[in-house]
Design goal:
Length: about 190
């Protein structure tokens, strides 16, 4: 059974459409109106093995907050929908990803119990027109809407671009492991 989903969200602040295939072949199309965010999401989907077609129109004349947060909401909802009601996945995933001088770690549990532990310090407020504070907001929105326990940290680094990118790639690799199909639900309770 294909693990695919389509989710749309329309508010006064954003309009988002996303199709995902969790068992992808590298087909990624991302347009958010924020070039650096496009770059991060493109890396996330590609390294996570997720085909994605994402279109986001947001109130960027205000700032990037609504666009980034609502995109995290939709991605979380779409991945959860694609997993299906059985939730028979490996559940846990961990990854350490270097990017030049930066190193980030991500540990996830697809448990149905959202929780975010986030640790990163950025030197600058912006990378291009992307507010670095939105990295945490994206991770929180994803965690809550996917029911994901997400522990993510930039362990060290100098360049903000490298720090953020290593975090998105670590998330991708950890989720790729956690979302791998399992023959049964991995919980002593029998359900997640």
């Amino acid at each position: 059974m294909p693990r695919t989903a389509e989710v749309s969200r329309k508010t006064k602040e954003t309009e988002i459409r996303l199709f995902v295939n969790l068992d992808g072949t590298g087909l990624v199309k991302v347009e958010t109106g924020i070039p650096f965010f496009n770059h991060m999401l493109g890396a996330f989907f590609l390294h996570g093995g997720i085909d994605a077609d994402l279109t986001v129109k947001g109130d960027l004349e205000v700032d990037c907050h609504h666009t980034v947060e609502d995109t995290g909401i939709v991605i979380g909802q779409a991945v959860l929908k694609a997993i299906g009601s059985s939730k028979a996945v490996k559940r846990f995933g961990t990854a350490h990803i270097p990017m030049d001088e930066a190193l980030s770690r991500c540990c996830v549990d697809v448990s149905g119990r959202p929780y975010l532990v986030f640790s990163a310090e950025f030197k600058n407020q912006f990378i291009g027109n992307f507010d670095t504070g939105m990295v945490e907001e994206f991770m929180r929105a994803l965690s809550v809407n996917m029911g994901l326990a997400l522990h993510i940290a930039n362990l060290y680094g100098q360049d903000d671009h490298h720090k953020a990118e290593s975090m998105f790639k670590a998330l991708a690799q950890a989720l790729k492991k956690a979302l791998s199909p399992s023959k049964k639900v991995l919980s002593t309770k029998g359900t997640l």
